[in-house]
């Protein structure tokens, strides 16, 4: 968190000169910087991203900008987010080896990370819009969520380490503020930066008039803001996942903070559900059913793999202060009831956060391509309406969605409802 | 948190020499240290406490020891707890003016706080054992809990300030560890430092064999360990409260950390319930009923005053990120449902923590005088048994104890049960 006063954004022109002397680049790109090819590819909202290629290979150089790209210089954002991204990536690499890009170099003063270039990986959201499937997607994602959740918590860590780490990540104030506003507040009133498809007005009015819904959202917001159970990715949507047809990697944890375990998985599932509801606009009739079924199968698989891996870690790596073995196994008693109750409460949180993410991506500032790329606003509104009403159901009735099948069954029902 | 290598414990003999030059003492005790009278009065477990009296008045000098007094030098404890006590006291003084002793001086290097001498106040626990009542006790305590809970949370504070403060208090690791062990774990297995009244064995065995109970306790432990809702006192029992017959002050917040709102109130009510269940051994028949009724009335009053003050602050001081007015009042909608749901969830937590405190004070290391001063072990076991079984009921059925009267009604029922 020591960004320098000499911070200066890279450009395709200056990159070779500025980074040409760094060993990690020479090794991974090639010894002679004059032969490097630099391409700016940032399509995110907050950063510069370059691919640097040479004789020895390629790397990604990611540098934070002092403002939000999406909005422009009028929305300043601290450069220290690169520090938190770096710290989150190193922890994720330890907790779920192979799940995130390898880091070659970190420059705190320039808010810059040099990391593995993933190729031929592409962003998962694009694949879902195109109708491409990915082998093992559910198991990689379910395990990633379980391993980072469990191994970053007081179920596993030395609590003094977790407390020190939680204190460190409490410094990521301004990035967390984006989530606090765009996710938990803006969707539920006429916030300045909001926009939504015109035809949705009656539904938007209904949601914003629903006091019980807003109270439930705020209760989840209170959990997000205070309940530092584990280190979260913090922004785990399908744009933060890169895949080939058989390999999956998770990127971009600059929203990393300590928060409630259910947050990452809930956000992730929400993005699969939005992919699901948007499919009728992207698929020809023949492929629609089978691809939608694949998405729902992936959702169930993510939950199942999470559950299985979490229980495995519970039984084999429970070395933290919580649920000590002295009270259960060492006393000759199973902790099965305990982990089952724990996961029930996890599930309620995840389902609630899922519903909120489904709302904010349609009502707040940062929308998803899944819906945004639907050109006909009537079609878009009709599909978004299903998504919004299902989101409401998930938030208000989280207790009823205790199994993956209960969620996918309900998704199928909403998918055939004509709300608009 | 910068205790010096020159740290050295005060003694009655060295105090005047070492502190005689300090203006805050000269002003509050008297200009000439040779006329000061020093008395060591520490009856707590962790600290040296002196009363220093002189011509101008008296002060208390509290200095942390590098080990737990109760156990001895074999249990080292960091001196930095004085830093956290000082920081907690200054925040409590701002959030509920007049509720805590005034601070005259803090010496981080010597782990020492010089503060107001409360006189003729005595420790509330002693009063409850003697059968003395205190005017306005319930309203002072209920308001203290509500004000510190509300004003130390994201309902009220600027969230960057709360995050920085939560990060600061995450440093209080070793003191929090005492609570983590003695409160949340030791009561539920045969931990080394435990002791309990011999006749309780059958009940202790039953509690320690109860997996659902232990799972519920651990779920509350998980909330305690991660859910940094507000700055807690952290050790709010009747030994941390000093009263005259009409004035009440709260002392000793060295266990201060950020945690779940319900923790302080739950601990406090537990200590009143233990006072209640112990009364048959301390009161003659004639006074017993009326004094027990006063204690239960105080419990109801604490809850009612908490509820009333919390709702008042909700309506008048809700300036934090949570439950923003933009979603409720500014949209022409009441947030009554939201605060009611919030307080329901608070109540469930408080009731659960209450039950755990009732267990640990009878089964773990640090017992309460309420029961300990009962000489006849048969009588003691009989009264402790009621307390233990009610504690279990509160933990497992927290949802059912949604109103103060439901708790006091159940207490009356347990008070007439012959469990042993």
Q: Give, in order, the helices and strands of chain A.
A: HHEEEEEHEEEHHHHHHEEEEHHHHHH
How many helical stretches of chain A? 15
Number of strands of chain A: 12
CATH topology of the largest domain in chain A: Aminoglycoside 3'-phosphotransferase, Chain: A, domain 2
Give the helix/strand class of chain A: alpha+beta
Number of domains of chain A: 2
Oligomer: homodimer
Sequence stretches where pLDDT stays below 50 over 5 or more residues of chain A: none
The coarse silhouette of chain A is globular
**N-end to C-end Cα span of chain A:** 48 Å
Description of the molecule:
- The structure is a homodimer of 420-residue chains.
- Chain A is an alpha+beta fold and 420 residues long.
- The first copy, chain A, has 2 domains: 15-116, 2-Layer Sandwich (Phosphorylase Kinase, domain 1); 122-415, Aminoglycoside phosphotransferase (APH), C-terminal lobe (Aminoglycoside 3'-phosphotransferase, Chain: A, domain 2).
- Helix content of chain A is 50%, strand content 12%.
- Chain A is built from 15 helices and 12 strands.
- The first copy, chain A, has helices spanning 15-19, 23-29, 81-95, 124-130, 137-151, 159-169, 173-183, 201-208, 211-226, 262-278, 285-316, 336-363, 369-372, 377-396, 404-415, and strands spanning 37-40, 47-54, 57-64, 67-68, 72-76, 103-107, 112-116, 122-123, 230-232, 241-243, 248-250, 257-259.
- Chain A has a 5-stranded antiparallel beta sheet, with helices on both faces. Chain A has a 3-stranded antiparallel beta sheet with strand order 8-10-11. A two-stranded antiparallel sheet of chain A has the order 4-5.
- The longest helix of chain A has 32 residues, at 285-316.
- Chain A starts with 14 loop residues before the first helix and ends in a 5-residue tail after the last helix.
- Chains A and B meet through helix 6, helix 7, helix 9 and helix 12 of A and helix 6, helix 7, helix 9 and helix 12 of B.
